[in-house]
## 1
Amino acid sequence: MPSTAPRTSNDILARGLRVLGAGIREQKAIFAVAVAGGALFGGMTVASAFVLGGVTTRTILPAFAAGRTTAGALAGAALAILGVALVKVVGIVGRRVGAGTMQYRLQASYRRRITRQYLTLPLSWHQRHPTGTLLSNANADVESTWYPIAPLPFACGAVVMLGITVVALVRTDPALSVVGLVVFPAVFTLNFVYSRRMSPRMTHAQQLRAEVSGVAHESFDGALVVKTLGREQEETDRFRRQAVELRDAMVRVGRLRGTFDPMMEALPTFGTLAVLLVGTMRLRSGAATVGDLVSVAYLFTVLALPVRAIGWVLGDLPRAVVGWDRVQRVLRASGGQAYGDRVLPARSEPARLSVDQVTFGYAEGAPPVLIGVGFDVAPGSTVAVVGPTGSGKSTLVTLLVRLVDPQSGSVLLDGADLRELSRGGVSDHTAIVSQATFLFDDTVRGNVTLGADMSDEQVWRALAVAQADRFVRALPDGLATRVGERGTSLSGGQRQRIALARALARRPRLLVLDDATSSVDPAVEAAILRGLRSADLHATVVVVAYRRSTIALADEVVFLERGRVLGRGSHQDLLATTPGYARLVLAYEEAEQERRRNRAALAAGGRGRAGKPPAKAAAKAGEPDGGADADGAAEGAA
């Protein structure tokens, strides 16, 4: 995402304060508690200085003069100092608890908003933005936006303290107050310059954070490709370049901050030295007392940390503005799907599907992927969508479950346009299983239910239809077996069958299979499709297929080519009437026969002493198609 950070210090300050104001409006009560604690701390800090001056005047100096003191005088001094300290502790607790609670609530709230927005935005928007950038928006950018909120109550308390200090200085000694009137503006001027210089550095660093996250995420996702092609060094070098660039950017930020911090620490110290210098002259002239000088000197000594809090807020405003801009680009992104208020009644019978002259393209001005596609699917029937690579099959199935909306035409479920249904209305009646299945790092049961309230009986029933029950029972802990990140402990065919069971467990009225059984043995695929037809599923099925055995089980075939429907009818009819379909299916069949020959050769070469192929031995262990090894061999042969 390109940066649009403010370029002038006035913009930084004004926009940064608006960001903080937005957070304050959302957490008014907690902010009030935190600021009250900060103001109490600031007031008691000033009070402690003047209590110390009073103790010096009334207790310490008389004791030196008389050579003795009384227990009552010491007790009174101790109680005064202790009382102020206890009230200051109350202010510290209120400030810290309030500021921390406010910061973490705002971060959690905006992470939820970004996540909800991600779920709302269409797939086309996600395809235009790298995953690393989206992760950075939800994490690092949110943290940066609300980073200054934590020291803000402290800074507000410091402002109160500075106001009280100026009044107290003027009342105590106008000459000493001049020192404060010089030091305090110098602090704000220094912060002003710092913010102006820090903004471009922080903007660049935030962008680099997203890029580093994107490279890392891409490398993790492509680990199999990287390892198998021996690209580890290239990926390491690519990540190193981005990481070094981020390091250099952060070093530049650190250098500037390292220059700024000592200057902020030094100003109150110079103020203390100036107070001692001026105060000594005032003592000699009799215009000030020792107690006054002690109070003012101590006050400048303890001013360093509260004044630094103001610097923390002003110094982090550029970072907050950059984070806010990046977060708002997500929250204000357009293209989210609109929902109607129509609700389909809950039914158990299969759905009726109609695709009415649908046209769709992924980018404005680009050639459409689908052009005037239209067909009807009778309730309870199975339709196979067949076509060469790039014909629009996967795009079509995303339209059937409203992952995207058509540019023209409509998709109807029981006569209702999917765009007219209320939020969640499509997913209540449909389910899709894609070729690229995803499993969470959870148990088998958790991956099937995804948190839905289902009994074990329902889970096993879905697994049985998906031809997954036997291998799940053979797993060490059955349904409670953890499958690893992305299901890495399972074969490709096993992952597909669990994903299919996940869809079946919800008993959809429309089931869409996007080449969802490509990783399983043809015999298992046939068993799955027969199970779908014979099970008490009550679903209309649309399946993207290329195997002749799968196509033959369909009631009707829709042939797509170059985004258009070039043929509809039974498998035999299309073989006779549509040359493109016949060529494609025969090519698929020849490729399948070649895979079978390769698998047979692999099995013959892997016979053990007992003379049994590994797949048969695995089947005896409870896996109908040879388990993970057989699936892996099939995929390798393919």
Note: The CA atoms of residues 268 and 423 lie 59 Å apart.
## 2
Amino acid sequence: MTSFIFCIHNHQPVGNFPHVLDDAYGRAYLPFLEELSKHPAIKISLHTSGFLLDWFADEHPEYIEMLGAMVDRGQVEIMGGGYYEPILSIIPPADRVGQITSFSDRIEKLFGTRPRGIWLAERVWDPTLPSFLKEAGVEYVVVDDYHFIKSGLKPDELGGYYVTEDQGAPVKVFPGSERLRYLIPFEPVDSFEGYLKGFSTGKKGRAAIFADDGEKFGVWPGTAKWVYKERWLGKFLEKIEGSDGWLTPRTFSEYMDMEGPLGRVYLPTTSYMEMGGWALPPDASADYAALTEELKAWEDGERVKRFLHGGAWRNFLAKYPEADWMHKRMLGASRAVAAAAAGRKRKGAGEALRRLYMSQCNDAYWHGVFGGLYLPHLRTAVYENLIKAENAVGIKPSVESRDLDADTFDEVVVRTEKLSLFLSPERGGTLVELDWNPGAVNLFNTFSRWREGYHEKLKEAVFEKERGGGVGKSIHDSTPLKEKGLDRYLKFDRLRRSSLRDHFLGDDETVEAFRSSEYTDLGDFSNGSYAVEIKGKGVVLSRGGVVGGEGIVVRKEIVAGPSTFSVTYRVENAASGPVKARLAVELNLCLPGCNGPACSLSIGGHTVGLDASGEAGGVEAVELTDRFAGVKVGFSFKGPVTLWHFPVETVSLSEAGFERNYQGTCLVFLKPFSLGAGEGMDFAFTVAIGAV
């Protein structure tokens, strides 16, 4: 007899659009539960992440009522996890325990039962986790069979659970089947039966374990029709019911209570196999994908694959500086919340902790086949909750220099009553984050155009689209295009898109050349190291460098007020000969409303959308307005300037295929100069942020 453990993981990230949740509810979550309720003999273990569970409770109490009845009759085992689906291994230890226990409390309140096991977000395992899981009251966790194979075990030894430990704290670990993940629900039901009947008596353990996303039962492309209209799920459940005893559905807890562990195991730092490829740098990621595909044709491909290992999840923090910065900002907010709690500042402590936990939702910190980090609204939600957590414990006006992102170089933080400015002297003296605290928004939340390993597949996808090729049912096997001509947008950035980045350009450079990263920078300032002088309520950044081979000194002073700040440049010729160029100050902004109809760019009274591109001369004022978020950002110049503006757009993969995403609007302020030896030029502007 084979035990079948059917584990479903339902998740929506913090900050996702309400219409996306409504769509997923109607296409997957509700019909799945309705179909399951018709088959009371079929037992499942179900995990629903906290943000989604709270949404069910608020918007669809009928779902909670139906699920509660299934829990009461023993058909559904509710699993716990981190409340807002964090990658547990990269958040502070206290937050790991707090996220799990607070979610267990919520589940117990809703369903009258406390979960024994958890869903591990993205199955990102770290060998130190058992200590924290044990402290949080966790008895078991499910990962992938891939984790066990990387520990040296063979597939036929994975028919049950093993015990692992850290510092003497044990936890039980179940291996979810990779084969079942690809089979369910994409292949005919008979394929499932044929696979399970292959569990011969010579195998170690008698449990077949499926553990994967509930969204593949209706949300993934083509699955709503296949799973429900064509009755794949109904046939699947009927097949299990009619198995004549050779197959018995059980929950994780039931199986643990009737079967002992298969042995002890120590799992490496890893996730599922696809994640290992996504986490690698672009060239390595492309090579990894090609090699895994090649292995399918090798006679001994499975033997080699067993020892093939990609990158660890933390590589995303090296691959994407935007993800790393958000992560380090989250750690800083966690320290601030913990310090406030230690100081017994109880006012706002609960709200601060809740917002901190929400900011730890994993989706916006990485990117694979789903949009993730590439989706501005998910990054916006991270910053919104970070800032609200800081607001709840109190932000005091200050200017300080310290290493915020653990790169061994100090950043400078300028905080006022309503603004927080984060400057990186080491990387071009740039402004990497600008927070408007009353609105809990990071106005500089722009994502750069990074090269991805899968970009090499774009031309193949274009060819497939042009010849009318079909799309496979599994998102791992399909590369559809959401619009024509996407390959035209494959332009990549030289540096992270931050603000107050200083370029020196010749007269022949154009906005299109700059937009396409095809320009020549005559200076070495854009990513050079600037010296720091904290001066009252502001900071002075200065650097001596070269422009066109001649010595130049750039000094920029940032002085902040309650809701404004001024930037004053002084460019001096330190050479013996003349220097002629254009100072080009680059800024990148991403408002919560992105390039939607609620957002606009006003240039001297002329208004355009934030996805417009162009050049304007004699500009004395610029304003970006977001009526959706209720915020506006105005720039006023001391003397007219030339303005370049254009949208920052990326091409990335999502579950629906290749797509173009707006990531922000780039503004470039240009000031020409011609300086003799010892001469200087001044350039200044003021930035004002306020409510619409």
Note: The CA atoms of residues 402 and 410 lie 5 Å apart.
## 3
Amino acid sequence: MCAKLRHGLALLLGLLLFAWAPGALAWIETSVRSDLVTVEVARDGTAVVTHELIMRVRGGPLKSFELAGVDGDAEVLPNASVTNTRAGAGVSDSTPLLIEKSEDGSLKIEIDNEKGLRRGRYLFRFAYKTNLVGRDLITAKGAGVELRWVGPRLESGVDSAKVVFRLPRAAKPPHVPDVQSPSAGIGMSEEFDGVFLSNLSREGEIDVLEVVRPHVAKGEPVVWRVQADAGAFDAFSQEAGAEEPVLVEAQGPHGLPRAALWAGAALAALLYALLVALKARAVSLACTAREARARVLLPLPAPLRGALAGIILGAAVVVGVLLDQPTGFGVLLVLSMLCASHLTPRLSQVIRGPGSWRGLEPRWLRADSSEASLPGRFLDTGRLPGFFTFVLLLGAFGAVAVLVFKRSPYFGMMVAMGSASLLPIFCTGRAGELPPDPVARPRRLLRYLIKKLAKRRGVDARLVGRFPEGSEVPDELRLEVLPRRGLRGLRAIEVGLEYHQTGTGPVGMPCVIVRVQDESAAYSALPRSVVWTRGRDEDERVTILRPKLPTYSMTLALVERLLVVLAARKRRPAPGAPKSVRVNQAPVPHAA
């Protein structure tokens, strides 16, 4: 009975708590993902500010929110709407917005839908009109004017804020001022702290300046500044109107002198043409020394190819700087690089003439770089002088890009991209892609094997070289190894390199050559799977063995294994056979 009473009281208490519980409050979380603002300024100083604000909504429903920090004289324009940005959303998904300006200067934005906005990403579009001249946000400064506009304060902050200024076209294009320059006022850099990136384009009678702030903190009122020509606005154009034709003639984009830009483009074309021609001559001489044929990506004579590469690079500078076309600059830069690029040289089909193998002195194993004597070492990253030259030039490009970037991020990025023109000069047509020197390439391997085999007893190793007829200089080196007590028919165990052509050039792989007499004990000692071919005479048989991995240690292990297999063993007496005993017999004396 007591248990039933307790359960009943608990149930009654639960019902009372449920009946007294207040209505659940909706949970809403919003965050601004991006804010794109277009400020279109007319010649009289009035402007239309258009916001395209992307907001992420969690929970909901969201029925209204406030945007603080808008222009004080804002006149809201009609046709404001919100659209769901989800994939497949169409025009029918847009919802009207009701916007009202509050006394504190903020905008109250209300969704004209009883259901509000649920979870998702939404694009809010709205615009208002303001007078920048009337509020002294366009003021004279030096020879031009300065335009100031303060963005709204976002409660959640934003990772990327972008403002597009559309201004009347004038003689001097607009640009973002450098707040660290000496011309900036005291405290100016603190007031406009932050990093601003800009990009300028000209569309007919309009100058379009895109300014990006990478990060905006919570509640931060960002001040956007633009310096423009006084002739862009009626209130300031009377003072600078007479100088406009002269400025248009003398200056190019971003206020740079046109004569200096043309001279820079011509100088870049000339230097690049000379570099391409020098590189082509060096590669041709190096290929001749190694009996190879030089190949280029564009099959044209070297002088014509160098001139074409220089002209295209100069055209890229003109298109990128004078015409403000970054895409055209990139395309022409790639074309100039293709004109300067070399392919892997092709080995000339030269049949080696007769020669003889002779023993060589250890001095032939002394390290001397055959690549050092080849021309073009300062234009090859595979060699030390060329590597340091390449790094030095890259550092120069980087330093210039950083200096230019402070004044114009667009030009700074172009200088950084221009450093790619060094790649075909220093990274193609390298000496490492040439056919290897058969005398210099195997020296390290042979020195390693001689040092290791010197510790092994009963082994003779000597350096041999092949001498063409009529020459006292060998054209190939090998190491000849033999056990002192070898099997019958063993003639030589030779270690050398064989070369395989790859996409990056020839690669030398170690190999072991075994020479034996046909049908001899040495011939039968190796496995039947070994493939034999005819050697230097009718009775000689030759096989080529390769280590499992082309390393020095694996090659040494293969040679040591062959020395064990092909070495003659001492005969042991059969078990139970009588031992041969040598007896010294004394002379038997004669009987008396």
Note: The longest strand covers residues 28-41.
## 4
Amino acid sequence: MKWVPWLGLAIFLVSLGLRLIGITWGLPNDLHRESYHPDEPIVWAVSQRLEPASLKFTPGFYNYGTLYMTLARIASGYCALPTDDSQDAVAMYERCCILAGRILSALAGAGTAWVVFALLRRRTHILGAVLGSLAVGFAPAFVVHSRFQTVDVVATFLLALSLYFALKLLPDQEETPPDHYLRWAALAGLFAGLTAGTKYTGAVVILGVYAAIALARRPDWLRLAGVATLAAFLGFVVSTPGALTDSGRFMAGLNYEVAHTAAGHGLVFVGTPSGFLYQLVSLWAGFTLLAFLGGFGALLYAGLRKKPWALVLLAFTIPYYFLIGRAEVKFLRYTFPLYVPLAVGLGWALGQAHRRGGTGRFIVIGGILAVGIQLKTATQYTLWMAQEDPRDEAGRFFKEESKKRPGLTVGVTDDPWFYTPALYPNVAMTRAAWNAPAGKFNLGTLQMLQANDPKVVYFRADQKPDYVTYSTLKSYDLDRLQNAKDLGGDQVLIDQWKEVNARLQRDYKPFGVFGGQPPPRLYREDLEYVHPYVFVWKRKDLP
């Protein structure tokens, strides 16, 4: 069937088109000069230290590998440099650069769906290949993060390629033996190294490559494993050369990431279940429940039946899940590499059910329903990202109110950041910029105190602003931990929040919520980025 290869391209284009809708969400605009994604300004700043034309590939920042930073720097080459040093001009340049990096992520997200399609074509019926690839193309969290200038989606794409070439070492569904063993081992290892050079935890995929080599039962298995290992090492060094040429700072960055994942991330994961359980719920939230159960069940069943392809995927999946399950930092995006084996398992099961016919048709209907639920959920997030962010809505409201009532004051419950409505242009500035010295203040405090229309103040005992505002990105964990015990030093934050609520109840009345009323949901902060709910309280004595 000559038309079959075109299906992969069609799936890629559909997945890409979905990702391009809303891709400008949260970028610097007339209300704020930083992205609403807290990591994007950091990624942008680091990428600007690289000079590919001068062969400078050592940014001095190694919390992540360097490959994505390098690609983002190259992609931003078409952005015109600012004509002056004004903050607005720099913000518009940053906007262009971040958008270029986001397009890379969108291409990688859609490319992952294409790779899964190509992988499944060799393992099952074409219907299963289509549905399995769409399960990645439409996975809601993967769609959302494909619009961010961050490392996760590109790392998942490279990981999928590593598994694709690893499985080329095994016979296909027609039991046709592979050829070019050395080539496939080298490519699988190379992409494993590039994955690690984008995000270090992706190095675990090399275990899947080794499993494929072992299951190929070749007399030259040791040579194949050596070639894969060497290719992985070269891929990592080429993508993150600072590992050798800037080893001191590289080890500092790597050690920081290891310590950070073991220590936690502020209040975000305090009082949450073990990562092993927490990330299962993350898979439910990000991949949707029916697709997750179908993919996991199929992968487990195929593994128990000793299907070689499933054993290869499990050789990666189990250690990787153990790795993220042990961590105290449990962002949903850490589960993205698991979407590949889940989608392959789901697609294989649906393809085999279609071939079997009879009652297998009900399984196929269930699979179509699962992918449909994914698309519906992804569409909701897409609509949110294509519309004005609630933080901007609130910011425009306060600016209009300031015109009616000069001197209007708005209280914030903490140092402003990405979670704060757009009360003034530098509201979302990074923590490093915020803490920069500026006379008797730090830069962040100075910028806040200089804000006008509206004036911005801290909501403290000596201040009684006209309005008080905050978003769920700030309040969710504080509310969640109100009755928690044994919080240690974090108890101070909870007590402060209780005092804030007491003052609000006494002196203020609920005015409204931008973004709609928060529904009951599976809260994950890195999905909440795109649509927090912004609460506004108004002083009771105001008309």
Note: The two ends are 72 Å apart (CA to CA).
